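Bump. Still looking for Glucohydrolase structure tokens.
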Amino acid sequence: MTGSWWKSAVVYQIYPRSFSDSDGDGVGDLRGIEERLDYLSALGVDVLWLSPVYPSPQDDAGYDISDYQDIDPVFGTLDDFDRLLSGVHARGMKLIMDLVVNHTSDEHPWFRAKRDWYWWRPARPGMTPGTPGAEPTNWRSFFSGPAWEYDEESGEYYLHLFSRKQPDLNWENPEVRQAIYAMMRWWLDRGVDGFRMDVINMISKDPALPDGPGGDGSAFYLCGPRIHEFLQEMHREVFAGRERELLTVGEMPGVTVDQAVLFTDPARGEVDMVFQFEHVNIDHGPSKWDIKPLDLVALKATMNRWQAGLASVGWNSLYWNNHDQPRVVSRYGDGSPLAAKALGTVLHLHRGTPYIYQGEELGMTNAPFETIADFRDIESINHYAEAGPSALPALRARGRDNARTPMQWDASPHAGFTTGTPWIAANPNHKEINAADAVSDPDSVFHHYRRLIDLRHTEPCVVHGDFTLLLPDDPSVYAFTRSYEGTELLVMANLSAEPAQAAIDPAWLDAELVLATLPDERSTTLRPWEARVYRR
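Sorry for the wait, here they are.
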């Protein structure tokens, strides 16, 4: 891999099922994405990341893959993919694929033909196979219930950290690794520009698979004993020696700053950056469904720790939203365009590579789900089955379907996403929040994001500058400076619904105002959800 072009890049995540439907079947597809490339080019993003488009039974929305080297017919064909990739490259953008190799679908041919490619174990000693409590270990699945599924045909259990239809691959088997590396090379040879690696820090497991406290086995599969060895091998086998500028980002639940330094140190040859979760775990308890109000002081402390920890070695990825997270403007904001702009400003001006999730640049909000029938996501449906109707408020606030409602293109029926019936309902507020209106309004969230992206592309201080947090204990104002080669930026945002006094050096008010979300008032008082960026 050459250079570090991705430090000044901005990545845009597309959830294909919900982005744009070209054929009216209610599901987004590759041709739909291709039709929207000029919109993405106008926004100014550098890289498109596609959530999985491979053949899949769709038990977990495509993250259960049955064939790694084809396209699911609901999304199109390999020819459609090649044409999309060509269109992306013609506009000077790059495309990265979602790499899901901790597990496959149980409908992947490997699962029946190559038993030793997965984790199989007999029942717990002294227990009758198939009965409650006979599972080989007490591990719990992320999607509720045990992490083991009984197979009557063999009389044994297989491990699935996620859905029972997502058996975990056994990376201890070198044949598994070589098959995956060959598949990755096949996509790179086809022209893709890298990979976002799904839960990649779970691929190395303690082969003993011991019981975990209270059913939590994470100590034995998060950043497991051979994780660095496996990622370094992957880098050697797949990426080393290629001349094209590639991007690798590893999704790593539970990763610490110290671990991330190792994963992203260029000298170690593992990944370019990681997705960490600390900043999106601030507003809940032990379970994501245990909701707490946002503590801005705690959020700033977490973000600051990651900025400091990766300041000299490694690199940050920056995100508020993705396909697994509720909409940030509803979560950390008040749902307004001003809140969307303020949150975007804060994120994009940290040190690291920003990721925009489809619709974030419009200020798309959480959806008004009324009953469990409105939900589609397996995680939410399984939680409701366990917890009952009392779970609905938490599902509305934190459910993954909030990110998966159709992209809001215009005010027409179904938000211009499809001429058919969408697989999940469009948010009714698409009549007020949509791309057609946003592109034509110079004061829209869209154009503010476009200006943020342009600032990253043109101001080296945004990419390379040091980060210094200001006002760490202020409960409303998020402020920091960036400095590089004699240039200094001040970023300050009021992330509250009340006016807030920013206790910054008033001399900054004489500096150049580079970006602002409200008409300029040379004052240290910030109006509700106001953000400003100064340069001197």
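Residues 190 and 474 are 50 Å apart (CA to CA).

Edit: fixed formatting.
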